[in-house]
Fold this protein.
Amino acid sequence: MKKGYIKDYVPDKDSERGVRYVGEYYITDIPDDKRRRDGWLQIVGAFVEIILILIAVSLNCMGNYKVNIVIPMEITLFCILYYITGSYAYLKCDKRMEKLTYEKAFMRTVQSVTIAIIFNVFSLIGETVLIIQNFKSMEGYGDCTFLIMILLVLVMNIAAFNRHRKLASQVRQEQKAEK
């Protein structure tokens, strides 16, 4: 039990866990088969983003030697890993969820994708400026490929953000359980 959620539980000797949940419940009307399909699509999409980032950072280009481009991409990668944990929680959640489960399954995904978008935009701006400044001295298409990879990851994150906002809007809060 998480520290911030202690007030949502009361001791109960008759319960298996020794506590009973008395906090707010969240109800979703998303059918189980759609929720499973969406959860697996989220996880697969996240792994595709990870592969794109790993390909981008393995390219031999100037952008991979600039801290203001690579560090935001690494933060984006960590956000995507965090997003996978939220997607897994979404995959395993029930129609009636406790507050902690709701926040793991719905809020974690929205927050991690939002932060990933912000840092992805930093990388995109940094790489664009780098290409514009060094256009005449560039060798090969490494930086343009890197820019395209960053853009693809950004588009996937924006799509995930919109999808999760739509999913979160299909959840309603139930009255508190009796104490």
About this structure: The chain has a mean pLDDT of 86. The chain has one domain: 29-173.
